[in-house]
Design goal:
five-stranded mixed beta sheet, two-stranded antiparallel ribbon, 7 strands
């Protein structure tokens, strides 16, 4: 993977998205709580491991953080089926045309961002290894104690 293939993000402007359940979530600058954002596909082997692991690790914090998954190139029906099979506890966002994904990246999933309420990205990573959960947990704990 070439470094230029990764769009490094340091700041996320405020924007709202609708979940597949029809709820609105605001994240980025001015949001009411930090957002752990996971961009994934249902066919990516790393995503098949990462998405449920992240959900299991952080779903208990949903009152304190937005836990959001954006399904690159997937519609709501596909995401509902996959969430049931994978046991995801995310707020899922469909992105069949890659409009949201393209704000963050050009290639490579899974891609993870932790976005503070002021819009600044405090953690980001691409691809997957289970040890990443420790780094994510530290970043989430840091942002929640500030």
């Amino acid at each position: 993977m070439e470094l230029e293939d990764i769009k490094e993000k340091n700041y996320i402007e405020s924007f709202e998205v609708k979940t597949i359940k029809g709820e609105t979530i605001k994240f980025g600058d001015g949001s009411n709580k930090p957002t752990l954002l996971v961009l994934f596909t249902t066919w990516c082997s790393s995503c098949m491991e990462a998405a449920p692991a992240i959900s299991n690790k952080f779903s208990h914090l949903k009152g304190q953080i937005n836990l959001v998954g954006i399904g690159r190139e997937h519609n709501a029906e596909e995401l509902k089926k996959w969430a049931d099979v994978a046991g995801l506890h995310y707020d899922l966002i469909e992105d069949p045309e890659r409009e949201l994904f393209n704000r963050f990246a050009e290639f490579h999933v899974p891609r993870i961002y932790l976005i503070a309420t002021d819009g600044y990205v405090t953690y980001q990573d691409v691809n997957w290894h289970p040890f990443m959960l420790e780094d994510m947990e530290e970043a989430v704990n840091d942002i929640l104690t500030k």
